[in-house]
Amino acid sequence: MSELLSFEAFSTFYEKEETCVQAWFDMRWPDGFRCPRCQHPSAYVIKTRRLPLYECQSCRAQTSLIAGTVMEGSRTSLRKWFQAIYLHSRPESVNAVQLARIIGVTYKTAWLICHKLRHAMSQTDSAELLSGLVRISEAIYARRITPPFWSWHVPEQPLLVGASVDDNGTILKLKIEKQEKEAIKDPYTPFAVEGFIDRHVEREAAAHAVVTRCTGRRRNLRLISLAWEAEKWLAAVFGGIGSKHLQAYLNQFCYMFNHFRESLLKPLFDSCVKSRTITYRELVGSAAESGMVHYKIAS
Ligand SMILES: [Zn+2]
């Protein structure tokens, strides 16, 4: 998979569905087919369906090309999925309206693809904890710029920004997590960090983690400014995000930060091949529980 192709060149290269099928097969089974049930290396290929089905020559279990990956259950062509992955690998990323127009699917399909890709990114990063030197800072998403500052303003969301850093202070890995606003009396009350540390920091590193507040002389400007960057990016690409899906979008920002070297294309394909999918019902269910609201925030 070439790293720095233009979208046009990428789309031309992966124009035929067979090319995408072969590429997805190679990414999924880089050492050749393995039956997910018995690990047997040979399969019969059943080609009567839209996508090939592999029947294990030993235990007869049938495995579809996309089962167990981000595309599982999707009826959208691999070609369009590949284009969606490409567009998500660019620093400016893409929103569902743009994606629908560019790859030629309905808004609902595009919305679902975007969330599925975000879910794959979240799964990849949640598997890795912060380690070594860990710094944690409070930050506030959509912080109001007009008084009163002493009470929570509806769109504001308390965040914790955590990072593994090297000896020079360079950030090696970033996590941003939305905190329970109801548990924090007002923006000046210190945020509880124990839960964040439990979920995201390796045990050996936890004892030495340095926690700083979002105001005051000791504040960690680097971490706070990363939260601002995330907010600016969310405003520019998505028009600002309400609290219900905010975590998924913060995960996307962190994933891009953590995995972008010269290109995000290969890491993102890798995450998509290795991650379980999330269904529309799971997505809408989790949003419906808390009532999906979108706020426009000032950028
Ligand atoms: Zn088998």
Q: What is the count of helical runs?
A: 11
State the distance separating the first and last CA atoms.
36 Å
Main sheet properties:
4 strands, mixed
* Count of distinct structural domains: 2
List of distinct ligands in this structure? zinc ion
* Residue fraction in strands: 5-15%
Largest sheet strand order: 6-5-4-7
DSSP, total strands: 7
Structural class: alpha+beta
Mean pLDDT: 91
Low-confidence stretches: 288-299
N to C succession of SSEs: HHEEEHHHEEEHHEHHHH
Helix fraction, binned, reads: 40-55%
Morphology call: elongated
Radius of gyration: 21 Å
What this model shows, in words?
- The protein has 299 residues and is an alpha+beta fold.
- The protein has two domains: 7-126, no CATH class; 133-259, no CATH class.
- It is built from eleven helices and seven strands.
- The strands form two sheets. The chain has a four-stranded mixed β-sheet with strand order 6-5-4-7. It has a three-stranded antiparallel β-sheet with strand order 1-2-3, with no helix packed on it.
- Strand 1 (43-46) and strand 2 (53-56) form a beta hairpin.
- Helix 4 crosses helix 5 (107-126), helix 5 packs across helix 9 and helix 5 packs across helix 10.
- The longest helix is centred in the middle third of the chain and has 20 residues, at 107-126.
- Zinc ion binds at residues 35, 37-38, 40, 56, 58-59, 61.
- Zinc ion (ZN) binds at residues 35, 37-38, 40, 56, 58-59, 61.
Concise synopsis of the structure shown:
The protein has 299 residues and is of the alpha+beta class. The protein has helices at residues 7-13, 17-28, 78-88, 96-103, 107-126, 194-200, 203-206, 221-238, 243-259, 265-274, 280-290; strands at residues 43-46, 53-56, 62-64, 133-141, 157-165, 171-178, 210-212. It folds into 2 domains: 7-126, no CATH class; 133-259, no CATH class.
